[in-house]
Design brief:
The structure is a homodimer.
Chain A (H helix, E strand, L loop, with lengths): L2 E2 L14 E6 L2 E2 L5 E5 L3 H6 L6 E6 L2 E10 L8 E4 L1 H7 L6 E5 L7 H8 L6 H12 L5 H11 L6 H13 L12 E5 L9 H10 L4 E5 L9 H6 L8 H11 L1 E5 L7 H13 L4 H14 L4 E8 L8 H17 L3 E8 L7 E2 L1 H12 L7 H17 L8 H10 L2 H12 L11 E6 L4 E6 L1 H10 L9 E4 L6 E2 L4 E7 L2 H12 L5 E4 L2
Helix pairs in contact in A: 3-5, 4-6, 4-10, 5-10, 6-11, 6-12, 7-14, 7-16, 9-16, 11-12, 14-15, 17-18
Chain lengths: 514, 514
């Protein structure tokens, strides 16, 4: 968020008058930089700054745009400005260093967002300006929220999506690999416990295909692949480390955010996450910008469909599929999609560590492994092997099964974990609570959204061990008092919170008596 | 934002463990309440709270939802929680009082906002839930920004607008007047210097009609009527004071926000303002909720049209007009609209005090008074007199002119100012800069939006004396070096900022050479 640049045009005029001494406040405002200034300091008075104003803060030649909090009490000396942790990190320097504070230049690109709300599509040039300003830290959280909402739902067409994807690629880094093809797989998410990536990557890599997988952390779900992988090995790899892992093992499972492949996406996610938003157009832009930046030439996209999954109908899935393929084609990446069953969780665990346990059982060919997770992963791995020329059409799944059952996939997974920095044992939750059936019945429906919410209330994904384990899949029969799922939490407060919610939602697992 | 209510269900369980001592931090975060807690305090640890979490804070039986900032340094004792000014005001109490901090209940109503982004209209029940939660302080700023953007532009239909208007009325107070009709006038805004309200109200009141006018402060403009009136008399009247003024003088010009007539609107404006958004549906809901809550039975709505006004075409004006009338009818208020010329500012001044000077000149029948402002105000006052039965159809304007030229309107205005707390002299800016013509030409176009922006950069509306005075109306001829407009600012920083922008926008007043 800090930039090497020249002082703004108006800065020279009145240089000294704009100087304050910086001080670390030790206040964590997450990623939004905040500056604390006294209402009676000479800058607030001369510039007419008031609380919540956006201001430009310069130290030497680094600058950020920060939100102003006005301080009245003796928290600061008159010639001091306090900085939140995010502002402090971005500016560098030490207590007492001189900083200068100005009005920021108006955000011209926000006019495109405003126009979008009135139905005018955003052009390539507009998308570039918006992404440039977002990555430059010029958008406040509410401006980003408005941008996200303006484009959310079904409000971006194919051209806009293409423009945004290209714009997101333009503002980030891009990896290049010596050999081709470079393959990838991605799930659009929305289905808890669908942790196939950690099985597909070792199978595909064991067959010699290059698969430099960068995954997200959760946006609206209780765990992303990066969150789950993190319970098994480090995922915060830089580009040089990813290159080393992939050159040695053909594959990796790293957190995309650490390598800044799509920095705009990482910033947007910070606001999308608390809003629980993750729309079609933005999903396509987010996925493709990361795949293309990672240097992939072909990717398989898994689209789970279910009434309570992210994609609710086959029609919606086909629309999303068409958009992914079209946008991918126009940006030079070969995509295939597969529409899968999203009516219930794929594995049993929901939450980073609990999903990791499911993955380990499959890779280790354990007898208690979740069949549904194994079969889905084999199907996806098979398709990727076919796309990458490592299996004939229709023979990929068979090849994948051999690689898994032979133990080659498990060996490869361990090797990848070692290459990423060493394998770990997933943590276990200190607090659990079992939700039981209040009457006898057959499981007729499972509400993925509310299950995910319970896992999130329990602390997932930030609390790695938190989440839940489902004991009653669709069509199974539960007797009265029989466990339906177990909530796992790292703190009693989170357990109580998830439990209170779960107990008020009896139909989250719908039991019909006949 | 604080409520009398019971502790949340889960609060009882673990009461003592959730207690901290409150401390006023003296940090002004504007209206968003912020709580500062140490990362290592027992609540953050047991509840798993992290920076930016939304938390419920209780003192006795008052509670608020606040945004958490985590504090690392020795800013706080381990058992203390700091409160921003907004949180401090809402909770009441003194340093050292015990407060309790919990996870907030999930905001159920946000699912309606999410659904809206996918094209599902919001129902009456949904609108009620959203407004209830907004007024309850449960929406964070980014959630409000997303809600506003989801409904912005042309995305609300008549039924949704009606539902939102009714919902906004439901969560506020409502005035009742003994006699009928109770009239009102309103301008949808977007045209700088269109300060007719301060002329219409005294004319109408002088004729004996009841006109309890509550005005907004500026949203996207450099001055609202309340901002302008405030330079001439107090506008922060409570309901009892409004009643007293209107009973004595038949009319008032008060700030609506002070009487909480539409508290939801006041909260939304706080986020709409920095976003520069003010959409059709929300405009209708905002205007009508205030008129109806103020007890009006009939209202005239002025809709200025111009390519750079808020409403850009006659078609758009007719659409807005139809929506206002339809929604008004279904909510039991008689509306008429008048579509006016919005191609240039109506008066000469732009900014609270500068617009007040224009108003005074008209009321005092001064020879230098702006004719355009006077004629527009007389036309509007005439229509209101006709709607209120004080003039025959077509005779209202004549009657209004008599009341103005006789000095009755000026007397009434002074009486209203006295009744509101005493008349004031508008402030004058300490710093001015004249922008001159760089070549000879005839004024062919005036960009209202950019003019408004210059006035805002100069500090309007917060700095009352700030803004600009236009010297070159449409069709006038300017010689090289002749003043086009004068920027007024209260601080050198703001003057420099407005001037830098103005100088880069030569065509804001377009001079054509022939």
């Amino acid at each position: 968020m800090a930039h090497q640049a020249h002082y703004p045009e108006h800065a020279g005029r009145n240089g000294k008058a704009h100087t304050l001494r910086m001080r670390r406040m030790g206040i964590d405002t997450y990623l939004e930089p905040v500056i604390y200034m006294r209402a009676d300091c000479h800058i607030c008075r001369s510039e007419g700054f008031e609380a919540l104003a956006r201001v430009e803060v310069w130290r030497d030649h680094k600058h950020i745009v920060a939100t102003l909090n006005v301080v009245k009490a003796p928290l600061l000396e008159e010639d001091e400005a306090g900085l939140s942790e995010a502002a402090w990190r971005a500016l560098g320097g030490a207590n007492g260093d001189r900083i200068k504070v100005f009005h920021p230049a108006p955000i011209q690109s926000f006019s495109h967002v405003r126009a979008k709300m009135f139905g005018h599509p955003i052009t390539m040039a507009g998308a570039n300006e918006i992404m440039h300003d977002i990555v430059g830290g010029h958008y406040s959280d509410i401006e980003m929220a408005a941008f996200i909402a303006a484009c959310a739902g079904n409000r971006m067409d194919v051209e806009e999506t293409t423009a945004f994807t290209q714009a997101m690629i333009n503002v980030g880094k891009r990896l290049h690999w010596g050999s081709q093809p470079v393959v990838d797989k991605h799930c659009v998410g929305g289905l808890p416990g669908n942790r196939t990536t950690l099985i597909v990557v070792p199978i595909v890599a064991a067959c010699g295909l290059t698969i430099p997988k960068t995954s997200s952390r959760a946006i609206t779900s209780p765990a992303g692949s990066a969150d789950t992988m993190e319970t098994l090995a480090p995922v915060d790899l830089d580009i040089a480390q990813i290159r080393r892992v992939v050159e040695r093992e053909h594959g990796c499972i790293a957190w995309g955010g650490a390598v800044n492949l799509s920095p705009a996406d990482d910033i947007l996610i910070r606001v999308e996450r608390p809003l629980g938003l993750d729309s079609d157009g933005q999903m396509v832009a987010s996925v493709l910008s990361k795949k293309i930046a990672a240097g992939s030439t072909a990717a398989l996209i898994d689209i789970p469909v279910g009434t309570t999954a992210k994609v609710r109908s086959r029609e919606a899935a086909q629309e999303l599929s068409a958009r992914l393929i079209t946008v991918g084609h126009s940006l030079g990446i070969h995509l295939e999609t597969v529409i899968t069953d999203g009516s219930q969780p794929v594995g049993r665990g929901i939450g980073p560590a609990l999903e990791a346990m499911d993955v380990l059982a499959v890779l280790q060919n354990a007898s208690e492994a979740a069949e549904s997770l194994r079969e889905r992963a084999l199907m996806l791995a098979g398709r990727v092997l076919e796309m990458g020329g490592k299996a004939e059409a229709g023979k990929g799944m068979e090849r994948a099964r051999t690689v898994l059952s032979s133990g080659m996939a498990w060996s490869k997974f361990q090797a990848i974990c070692e290459a990423q920095g060493g394998m770990r044992v997933p943590p276990k939750a200190a607090h659990t609570h079992v939700i039981v059936a209040r009457h006898r019945g057959k499981v007729a429906e499972i509400d993925n959204r509310r299950l995910a919410r319970i896992a999130k209330l329990a602390g997932a994904p930030k609390a790695h061990a938190a989440g839940l384990v489902l004991h009653a899949p669709l069509d199974s029969v539960a007797e009265i008092g029989q466990p339906l799922f177990t909530i796992h939490a790292e703190s009693p407060g989170e357990l109580a919170y998830a439990r209170t919610y779960a107990e008020a939602q009896e139909d989250v697992i719908l039991l019909l008596e006949r």
